[in-house]
Design brief:
262 residues, alpha/beta, Rossmann fold
């Protein structure tokens, strides 16, 4: 086998089924496309049904099988039903990308209890809910890869983002705990911590802070590589953790932020 073919084999996701939450846009959609390009069958999950169906149609143009599943990732019932449907439709689950997320740019004294709960539920609780149903199914296959979306603010603090920092800090350490618990089942659990990435969520932050979008984006670009991230930058890291390229890596936290934390 040539070296080129060996690399293709390591990166290939042929025969694999990947679940992606928050898949209707941004990092989720870009990751769905990247994993589809590697040969995976895609189960796209999002609370926004109309945008989710549009995203699924977009991914399907790449020639892979794609199904959309409407799912509120904060609902135990929704998560269980979505996972049951995906397993019934495809007969296996190999990759779970826990990517759904929201942010409120507020301090502790500015946050309402409902806002705090929403940020913790979407960003952190959802990982628990989905993983508890997916892990037993991965066990049946003999292996699996779970990838959680953290944040640079899961590793250090940030202004006016108290609930988000708390949630993403939880994601980072939950990833480590899951890796320890499920390594013996050959289930790898890793975390990607993106920096500011050009998504709807990032632009919404400017609105929440009451800042001109141009000014906000210029400040977000102030990092060694002198630009904000693209969803595709994060998608490449997702492919790495989903594929055999990372077969001996679990409990790892990968910062993808253009050098921002550095």
């Amino acid at each position: 086998m040539s070296g080129n073919n060996k690399i293709k084999e390591l990166m290939s996701l042929e025969g694999k089924v990947a679940i992606i939450t928050g898949g209707a846009s941004g990092i989720g959609l870009a990751s769905a496309k990247r994993l589809a390009e590697a040969g995976a069958t895609i189960a796209l999950c999002d609370i926004n049904e109309s945008k989710g169906k549009e995203a699924a149609a977009e991914v399907q143009k790449l020639g892979t099988e794609v199904q959309f599943y409407a799912c509120d990732v904060t609902s135990d019932l929704d998560c269980r039903q979505a996972i049951d449907s995906i397993y019934r439709d495809f007969g296996r689950i190999d990759i779970l990308f826990n990517n759904a997320g929201i942010i409120w740019r507020k301090s502790i004294t500015e946050l309402s209890e409902d806002e705090w709960d929403a940020v913790l539920d979407v960003n952190l609780k959802a990982i628990f809910l989905l993983s508890r149903y997916v892990i037993p199914l991965m066990e049946r296959s003999g292996e699996g890869s779970i990838i959680n979306t953290g944040s640079g603010w899961g590793l250090k603090g940030g202004a006016k983002a108290a609930a988000y920092c708390a949630a993403k800090g939880g994601v980072v350490n939950l990833t480590r705990a899951m890796a320890i618990d499920h390594g013996k089942q050959r289930i790898r659990v890793n975390c990607i911590c993106p920096g500011d990435t050009d998504t709807e969520l990032l632009h919404e932050e400017a609105v929440q802070l009451g800042l001109p979008e141009g000014e906000f984006m210029r400040e977000a670009s102030d990092r060694p590589l002198q630009r904000v991230g693209l969803p595709e930058d994060i998608a490449n890291a997702v492919l790495y953790f989903a594929s055999e390229l990372s077969s001996w890596i679990t409990g790892s936290i990968l910062v993808v932020d253009g050098g921002g934390i550095a």
